[in-house]
């Protein structure tokens, strides 16, 4: 006999939000999900060259690997 009450609660209509807007609903163990990137705003799917930099990740990467900026524009 399987144990009871060992699985998390399932929300079949969990809401997924991106940038404060409801994107879609999906089954999840959380009732509300917040995402930074989804296919509707990802550069690969939207053919845009916008760089999504969340919390300075690009700057941390550059600093971590000591990458020099060789652009003459700066």
UniProtKB/TrEMBL annotation:
Keywords: Chloroplast, Plastid, Ribonucleoprotein, Ribosomal protein, RNA-binding, rRNA-binding. InterPro entries: Ribosomal_bL28/bL31-like_sf, Ribosomal_bL31, Ribosomal_bL31_A, Ribosomal_bL31_sf. GO terms for biological process: translation. One of its GO terms (molecular function) is structural constituent of ribosome. The keyword Nucleotide-binding does not apply. It is found in: Plastid, Chloroplast. GO terms for cellular component: chloroplast; ribonucleoprotein complex; ribosome. Part of the 50S ribosomal subunit. Belongs to the bacterial ribosomal protein bL31 family. Type A subfamily. HAMAP family: Ribosomal_bL31_1. Binds the 23S rRNA. This is Large ribosomal subunit protein bL31c.
């Amino acid at each position: 006999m399987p144990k009871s009450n060992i699985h998390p609660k399932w929300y079949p209509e969990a809401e997924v939000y991106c940038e404060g807007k409801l994107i879609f609903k999906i089954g999840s163990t959380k009732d509300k999900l917040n995402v930074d990137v989804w296919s509707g705003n990802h550069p690969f799917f939207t053919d845009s060259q916008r760089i999504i930099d969340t919390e300075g990740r690009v700057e941390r990467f550059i600093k971590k690997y000591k990458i020099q900026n060789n652009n003459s524009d700066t």
